[in-house]
Amino acid sequence: MIKLTSGMSVVFVMALLSACAQLPTNYRATPSYAITDTENTALGVKAKNELGVNTKDSSMYLINDGVDAFVARLALLMLAEKTVDVQYYIWHTDLVGKLLLTGLLNAADRGVRVRIMLDDMPVKDTTEEYLYALDRHKNIEVRLFNPFASRSFRYSDYMLSPVRINRRMHNKSFTVDNQHTIIGGRNIGNEYFSADEFNNFKDIDVLAVGPIVKDVEKQFDIYWNSKVVYPVTAFEHNSATEETLSLIRKELDAFTDAQENSRYHLDVQDSKMYKSIQRNSLSKDNPSLVFKGEVLVVYDDPNKGLGKTEDEVIFLKNLVKPYVDNIDKTFELISPYFVPGKKGVEYLIALVDKGVRVRVVTNSLSSTDGLMAQSGYSRRRYDMLEGGVELYELKTDTKTKVSKSLRRGEKAKSGLHAKTYVFDREQTFIGSFNFDQRSADINSEVGVIYDVQAMSTFIAESVFDKTIKDVAYKVKIAEQDIETGDVQIEKGDIYWLEIKDGEEVIHDTEPETGFWRRFGQGLFSIMPIESQL
Q1: What's the pLDDT score for residue 34?
Q2: Which of 53, 61, 414, 444 is spaced 20 to 30 A from 338 at the CA atom?
Q3: In degrees rounded to 5, what are phi and psi of residue 176?
Q4: Residue-wise DSSP of 200-251
């Protein structure tokens, strides 16, 4: 009787879940596209002045500082006159998230059309509340990529639609007035903009004008109008009203006012970008960060999110592959979640055998926020080293300039989050694509290939020639027995070489980690989940 009752309960629960977990079908999603008559806006005039007579090239400004990255986005929002399109995997409703939501709302109040497109996976209940409320504004529309059918009990989707739910949109773009765009690796949240007290990410964004902007907007429109993206008005439980918007507006205004003279506010005022924007001299003040040349915007077809294969639709990895195949001298990779898999390892080693120098900087076990991804990397580490691939792992105590300041606190650590690949120091990819199987085969991604040798050389020299020894451990295989102090390493074992205060320090286990973290990495590394990482 007990077995029967239990069985009936399972059937009942599954039936209930099935009834709840159905994506809406009876809704309107009116197509919309980028607004193009923006040349005479303030940002349009700025773009024209920046580009000069050569309208074939784009002009790019590299942003590697978190506070500068925030300032750039907020400045664009304050200058917006006609349209703002933002597309992200994560948008937290923390300090940075709320400040930028306030900027979007203020722009909409001025008559600017705002389109917000987010992946639904990271949308928490509190974020959902803000999104639904903002969508009530006549000038704001919010859409979600591959949403959960059950808004209140997401586990039902995991149980009933695991393959569908596994496909996510990892794209990141921020475009204003169809004249300026920011594209790179950052999501929206404190840790991406040096605003977290304890952990911040090192990342790279590019602020750009020129043909690149139209291509980023084309990508946005294709996603926005795709079948895998749903307007938030489609969900029955969305009960937001004009009153809800009014309450959210008051909350955001009060929150923004409360940040006056806060530590982050003072960091913003001290940033180089803030001061340069005040002087209207961003490019003049920082000429070494400005580059011009031809670019190619590359992205996955959004129908990848519907389960279409690379034989049916375009995958980003296949657009990037020819650039890697044509490498003659150097392939330099910056990827926080580096999970090449067996085929990826064989591919990289084949490049080495061809005479190409392959160097990789990724997170260390101590700096990563993705333990499972790190396990996928660690299981292939020895093979790569044996095959001649050079590996560097970021130190956990490597702090951004702002994290070192007294305001942010000395406790702030940094993890790597940039996704940047340099081909022969002639061309560079910057975007959302990690060198892992999830980015390649499951997620939807976007990036830009910059055919600008000066930019490629600058990035490669900055990372791999000038700073790598100070900010990362070099992972090596012992060519002979090593005994130094309390450390004993046998020939053929892996060890980590650190340069500290000009002296070499050797570690026989992952530095700055404890037993349980290493145990977790080892446990995940033997599980058959590599293709999902």
Answers
A1: 98
A2: 61
A3: -125, 130
A4: EEE--EEEEESHHHHHHHHHHHHHHTSTTEEEGGG-TT----HHHHHHHHHH
Active site residue 507: no
424 is catalytic: yes
pLDDT over 70 at 405, yes or no: no
- The whole-chain average pLDDT of the chain stands at 91
Known catalytic residue at 267: no
Catalytic pick among 177, 267, 300, 436 = 177
Q: What is the pLDDT of residues 11-65, one digit of tens each?
A: 445 445 545 568 988 888 999 999 999 999 999 999 999 998 877 999 999 999 9
Q: What is the pLDDT of residue 463?
A: 96
Query: What's the angle, vertex CA 217, arms to CA 115 and CA 286, rounded to 5?
Result: 105
Active site residue 177: yes
pLDDT tens column, 232-287: 999 988 999 999 999 999 999 999 999 999 999 999 999 988 988 888 888 888 89
285 is catalytic: no
Q: What is the DSSP string of 456-472?
A: HHHHHIIIIIIIHHHHE
| β pairing state of 357-363 and 390-394 | parallel
- Rounded-to-integer distance, Cα 212 and Cα 209, Å: 7
Mean pLDDT throughout 118-131? 94
What is the residue whose two structure tokens read 């790279």?
204
Which candidate in 46, 172, 304, 317 is catalytic? Answer: 172
Question: In the annotation, is 419 catalytic?
Answer: yes
- The boundaries of every CATH 3.30.870.10 domain in the chain are 53-288, 300-532
- Three-class secondary structure of residue 170 per DSSP: coil
Strand partners, 477: 494
Element (H, E) at 450: strand 446-451
Rg, C-alpha atoms of the chain? 24
The domain 300-532 having CATH identifier 3.10.20.740: the answer here is no
Q: What is the model's pLDDT at position 457?
A: 98
Which tokens belong to 256? 């923004």
Task: Give the Cα separation of 397 and 261 in Å (integer).
Answer: 28
Question: CATH assignment of 53-288, given 3.40.630.10, 3.10.690.10, 3.20.20.370, 3.30.870.10?
Answer: 3.30.870.10
